[in-house]
Structures are given as structure tokens and as C-alpha cells.
Amino acid sequence: MLRGYYTAASGMMAQQRRQDTLSNNIANAQTPGYKQDQATIRAFPELLLQRMDGTTLPTTRNFRLRNGQNIGSINTGAYVQETIPDFAQGGLRETGMTTDMALVNGMLPDADGGLFFVVQNADGEERYTRNGNFTVDGQGFLTTNQGYYVRNQAGEPIFTDGQAFTMTDDGVIQVGDQQIPLAVSYTANTNDLIKDGQDLFALTGEDGEMVDARAMDNLSFAVQQRHLENSNVDTVQTMTEMMQAYRLYETNQRVLQAYDQSMDHAVNRIARLT
Q: Which N-terminal stretch is annotated as signal sequence (predicted)?
């Protein structure tokens, strides 16, 4: 009976974590370039049940030989193993702002590949984002709304000197007589990236690698100025999944209450009669 307690409780905890993930997706449905998270739920390792038995041998000491019979396997609950970002391209919307940029996937050589803007966080480390809601700071540098420098192809902050600029479809910023290629990095496996807050991604794992997208002949992309990429959150589908998670949570809650009532009968009523 105690195994049933743990199974129902683990189901409630898994649905609660799933609900938290879906709620975060809904909260960021209007965040430019946001990539929704998907919770992966799996069962705990299976346990093999065995019935213990024995056979009494016809000896003077009635020696008993133990043996067992396999009954079958059983799972002891479920848990959220991890949350994985979905890097599908979001739709574009026009904003009219010169500093807004949207990265549009063209031909990608790998099914799990992805393109990203390159920024520099507060510690000077390289990070990646799909949120092109940029601005120009007081010193004339192109930055994110959090103040992180946007890098050019040479890995340096982009200095606009506060001047108006235009951008070509291949991501080259034209400021006066200067042409500054915007840094666009590509990874063959987006699973090597983890969320690092503020719509940023960090590269993790020894096998992960980011390369200059312009150095690849079999890859194409475009940068749309005065546009932003919407999040890829489907609000209707997400709300449906939230209702489903809520109902599954309630189901496990009822099972837990049923076990609690059975335990109450076993401890307080049956024991009283005996």
C-alpha cells in the first residue's frame, strides 16, 4: 500500500513541474524570440516482483528449500527528467524600429541545427540569442535591452556612434561609410545549448561547437531589419496542455486520498475490532 502512496505522489509532483513549465511558456508568449520548453516525463526504473515460496524436503529435519516465482514488473511512479527548448522558427512581425532585427532560417544542413545572434554578457562571455529586440546605449554601442553588447563577425561590440544605420538582408550593418557584418553563429545540434536567462543561451558539453554561419557554403539565412521574431509558443495548445496537467494532478490526488482512507480503515477500524 505504501508503494501506492509514492506512485501517486510522484505523479502529482511530475504534473506540478509540467504545469510550471507550461505556465512559464504562457508568461513568455509575447517575448520576442522566446523558445518554449517541453517537459519530458519518464517512469522510474521497473522493479521485478517475485513471490517467495519454499518446498519441504522429506528428511528427518524437514529441510525447507527456498524458491521463488517471478510475478512481473512494476513501475513506482513518474518524474520530469528534463525540460528541452523547442527551437522551431517563430513568426515575424513588423515593428518599424531600426534597431529591431529578426533572424530568419534559410537552408540548414542539419535537422537539429540552429542560427543565433551573438552577444557578450556582463562577464564578457559569449552568449547566443534569437531575441533581436536591440537598442543603442548612451555610448553608441548596439546592445540588448539588458545592456549586453551585440558582437560583429570579428567578435567585437558594434559601435554605431549613435548614427542611424541600415542593414542588408545578409546581416551587414551600414553606418555612414562603414560596413559591419553582424555576427551570426550556427550549431549543428541545438541540444548542446542551455538557457542562461535573459533570453540567452550558453554552449554546454565538450562536443558542442558554434561556427560562423557565413563560413558555411551549405547554409543560408536572412536578417530582417525593423522586424522581430515572435515566440514559438502556441497559446491555445499550451492552455490545453495546462488543463490536461491539472486533471492528471487531480486524478493522482484522488488516488492518494483513496489510499489514505484505506490506511485509516486498516489502522483505526480493523485494529479496533481485533
A: none
Record the cell numbers describing residue 133, joined without a space: 529586440
Element containing residue 20 per DSSP (H, E): helix 2-27
61 to 53, 56, 65, 71, 117: CA distances (angstroms): 18, 10, 12, 30, 81
Chain centroid to Cα 217, Å, comes to 30
Look-up: residue for cell 522566446? 34
Q: Residue 248 in contact with residue 80, Cβ under 8 Å? A: no
Let me know: does 152 contact 182? Beta carbons within 8 Å. Answer: yes
Residues 220 and 198: their CA atoms lie apart, in Å, by: 27
Q: Which of 160, 204, 54, 256 is nearest to 149 (CA)?
A: 160
SS3 of 55, please?
Answer: strand
Q: Which of 152, 143, 129, 156 is nearest to 99 (CA)?
A: 143
Amino acid symbol at 146: Q
Instruction: Give, for 273, the enclosing helix (H) or strand (E).
Output: helix 271-273
Of the candidates 131, 125, 111, the one whose C-alpha atom is nearest the C-alpha of residue 198 is 131
pLDDT digits (tens, 9 = 90+) for 162-221: 888 999 999 999 998 899 999 999 999 998 999 998 899 999 866 678 999 999 989 999
Q: Which three cell numbers stand for residue 166?
A: 541600415
Distance CA 201, CA 223 (A): 19
Q: Check: pTM over 0.90? Answer yes or no.
A: no
